[in-house]
């Protein structure tokens, strides 16, 4: 895009007379420190990279809109879900989880599916994955889990032994491991995968009535996956394949779209459902709680600048609007703190002032100062509350709904420890061809594990989910099923 005849300037707006030659003492130099343009260029260049995300570092994004097709006002007062035909602008960031910023798109990994809705009530971030479940269910285990997915601090190489050691000692991971090692662990493109809120959330309507909800974004393009051979070849030949595909599709007018559906659970059912509905390693049966269509998300505009929009975009599951509230899900509770805290460190305490994160709704608060404050910083208005000078006040009608909590304050585990039923159900849902590919993938991933006891411990989990599942993995690894689980 042409900038016409605009003058090149320094960061403070002064015109630059020479951008080809630094200021020196004579033609041979040395260079003079008074060349402020040179110093500014070099200093800014050294700081062009903010710290990459600890997880979800490699990503692609796009703008679009969400349009309601089925009014949800009986369940939630959130305006973006109410009124057929209502449109809300949004931005999405897709990502891999474990790889660094320069890693390949086509590795076997969950994909982040983070949506920012710019609503008239403030931003709403729905920060999920392309899987309806996760590996762990308590945030206290998250740093340890991610460490196993990253590089070994001694060798600086990926460490399959650490991966499978952690998984074998964390049987709640089995459901997600089965999902990841199956065909959907390698989506063909970012356009051909579903997205999920993964966690359970609470919806509240205008009358204060609450229900539990799970989000499902179903790709209108259909779900398509790629073979490990193709994925491996692309990782070497075109490591940015997914990024390129998404950009080109939108640029060519082939706008990808997803239908948003929700599962609604009556509030009291949470006390009697056969699986803990707040355990993110579990799903709700669609037979028990059928999908209800809400609307349609369409991506129709590429970012103009990757860094400004995709890299500086910040998402947090704690960024909610009236009508959407948290559930007791322990992973969600931890993420509500951790994600916003990560952005304050990585991008800065005033990250919400950046255009990509700035709400469309008016912002009125008493937050002041901080690095890179780019607005009027409250001007001369009242800077504390309560005050006698007409400053913004709380609105009691937006208080979160009360819900009963009971129990002893302790470091307690979830009450239910059935980590095998749903993983086995997922295995049995697969066709024979899908099972064969799943087994081959797991066997290939476990062969480099250095200790046999780790392999045997993991095989027991597969066997408990489904005896055939465990036996086929054991056979592939030339190991026997431990007698104590038969």
UniProtKB/TrEMBL annotation:
Primary enzyme class: oxidoreductase
Organism this protein belongs to: Bacillus salipaludis
Region (Disordered): 1-29, 368-393
Polar residues: bias regions: 1-25
SMART domains from the UniProt entry: Catalase
Record-annotated Catalase core domain positions: 9-393
EC number(s) given by UniProt: 1.11.1.6
PROSITE patterns referenced in this protein's UniProt entry, alphabetically: CATALASE_1, CATALASE_2, CATALASE_3
Similarity-based family: Belongs to the catalase family.
Reaction catalysis annotation: 2 H2O2 = O2 + 2 H2O
Protein name: Catalase
Molecular function GO labels: catalase activity
Keywords: Heme, Hydrogen peroxide, Iron, Metal-binding, Oxidoreductase, Peroxidase
InterPro entries listed in its UniProt record: Catalase, Catalase_3, Catalase_AS, Catalase_clade1/3, Catalase_core, Catalase_haem_BS, Catalase_immune_responsive, Catalase_sf
PANTHER family per record: CATALASE (PTHR11465)
SUPFAM superfamilies in the cross-refs: Heme-dependent catalase-like
């Amino acid at each position: 895009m042409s900038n016409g005849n605009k003058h090149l300037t320094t960061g403070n707006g002064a015109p630059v007379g020479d951008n080809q030659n630094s200021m020196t003492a004579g033609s041979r130099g040395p260079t003079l420190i008074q060349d402020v343009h040179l110093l500014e260029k070099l200093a800014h260049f050294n700081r062009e990279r903010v710290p990459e995300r600890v997880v979800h570092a490699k990503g692609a994004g796009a703008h679009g809109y969400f349009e309601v097709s089925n009014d949800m006002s009986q369940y939630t007062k959130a305006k973006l879900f109410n009124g057929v035909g209502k449109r809300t602008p949004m931005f999405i960031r897709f990502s891999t989880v474990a790889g660094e910023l320069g890693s390949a798109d086509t590795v076997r990994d969950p994909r982040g599916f983070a949506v920012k809705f710019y609503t008239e009530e403030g931003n709403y971030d729905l920060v999920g994955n392309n899987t309806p479940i996760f590996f762990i269910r308590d945030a206290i285990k998250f740093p340890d889990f991610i460490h196993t997915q990253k590089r070994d601090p001694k060798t600086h190489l990926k460490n399959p032994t650490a991966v499978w050691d952690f998984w074998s000692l964390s049987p709640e991971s089995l459901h997600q491991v089965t999902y990841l090692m199956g065909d959907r662990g390698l989506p063909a493109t970012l356009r051909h995968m579903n997205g999920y809120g993964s966690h359970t959330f609470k919806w509240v309507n205008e009358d204060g009535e609450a229900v539990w909800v799970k989000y499902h974004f179903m790709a209108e393009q259909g779900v398509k996956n790629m073979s490990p051979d193709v994925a491996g070849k692309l990782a070497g030949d075109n490591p940015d394949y997914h990024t390129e595909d998404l950009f080109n599709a939108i640029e060519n007018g082939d706008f990808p779209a997803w239908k948003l559906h929700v599962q609604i659970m009556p509030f009291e059912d949470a006390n009697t459902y056969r699986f803990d509905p707040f355990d993110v390693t579990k799903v709700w049966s669609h037979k028990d709680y059928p999908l209800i269509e809400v609307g349609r998300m369409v991506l129709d505009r590429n970012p103009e600048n990757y860094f400004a929009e995709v890299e500086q975009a910040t998402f947090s599951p704690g960024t909610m609007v009236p009508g959407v509230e948290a559930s007791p899900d322990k992973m969600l509770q931890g993420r509500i703190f951790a994600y916003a805290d990560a952005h304050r460190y990585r991008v800065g305490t005033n990250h919400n002032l950046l255009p990509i994160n700035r709400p469309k709704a008016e912002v009125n608060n008493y937050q002041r100062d901080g690095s890179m404050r780019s607005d009027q910083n409250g001007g001369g208005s009242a800077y504390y509350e309560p005050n006698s000078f007409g400053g913004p006040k709380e609105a009691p009608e937006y208080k979160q709904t009360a819900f009963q909590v009971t129990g002893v304050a302790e470091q307690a585990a979830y009450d239910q420890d059935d980590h095998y039923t749903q993983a086995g159900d997922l295995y049995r849902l697969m066709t024979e061809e899908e099972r064969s590919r799943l087994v081959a993938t797991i066997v290939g991933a476990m062969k480099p594990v250095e200790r046999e006891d780790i392999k045997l411990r993991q095989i027991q989990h597969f066997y408990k989910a489904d005896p055939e599942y465990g036996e086929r993995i054991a056979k592939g690894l030339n190991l026997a099923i431990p007698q104590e689980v038969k």
